């Protein structure tokens, strides 16, 4: 006994809907996994091999605290999705703030004026 599987014209809309649901669920799972921070609970930095870096604007430790990562320099392109950090007193200012970070919005490292903390100042120094 053999079974032939085929779609009738009444099955096509249902098939397309099921395919669309599977595709959307797959995209959501991929998006969450790709933007989630790594699990560093069992990372032993002594056993991690880091690539050497040559940075013009300094370094910071990566997401698990093992490897050096270059700060982005002023004016350099930054992508928040990739967790790019700008050098001190600079922030990643998005080219188009309406583009969501999850979709790879890009920006440039720009100077951000620092607010002075006056808590330890005397009145004569204000």
Give keywords.
126 residues; alpha+beta; Omega-AgatoxinV; two-stranded antiparallel ribbon; 1 helix; 5 strands; elongated
Tally of strands = 5
Multimeric status of the protein: single chain
Q: Strand count, sense and closure of the main sheet?
A: 3 strands, antiparallel
Q: State the share of residues found in helices, binned by percent.
A: 10-25%
Low-confidence stretches: none
Question: What is the straight-line distance between the termini?
Answer: 92 Å
What's the Cα radius of gyration?
A: 24 Å
Strand fraction band?
Answer: 5-15%
Fill in the CATH topology of the domain at 45-111. Omega-AgatoxinV
> Which series of helices and strands comes N to C?
HEEEEE
Give the overall average pLDDT. Answer: 79
Q: What structural class is derived from the secondary structure elements?
A: alpha+beta
CATH architecture verdict of the domain at 45-111: Irregular
Q: What is the helix tally?
A: 1
Strand order of the largest sheet: 3-5-4
């Amino acid at each position: 006994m053999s079974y032939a599987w085929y779609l009738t014209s009444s099955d096509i809309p249902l098939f397309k809907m099921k395919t669309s649901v599977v595709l959307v669920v797959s995209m959501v799972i991929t998006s969450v996994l790709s933007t989630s921070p790594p699990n560093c609970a069992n990372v032993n930095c002594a056993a991690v091999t880091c690539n050497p870096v040559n940075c013009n604007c300094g370094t910071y430790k990566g997401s698990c605290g093992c490897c050096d990562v270059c700060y982005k320099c002023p004016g350099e392109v930054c992508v928040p999705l990739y967790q790019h950090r700008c050098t001190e007193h600079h922030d990643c200012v998005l080219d188009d703030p309406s583009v969501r970070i999850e979709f790879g919005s890009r920006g440039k490292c720009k100077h951000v004026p620092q607010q002075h903390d006056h808590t330890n100042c005397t009145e004569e120094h204000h």
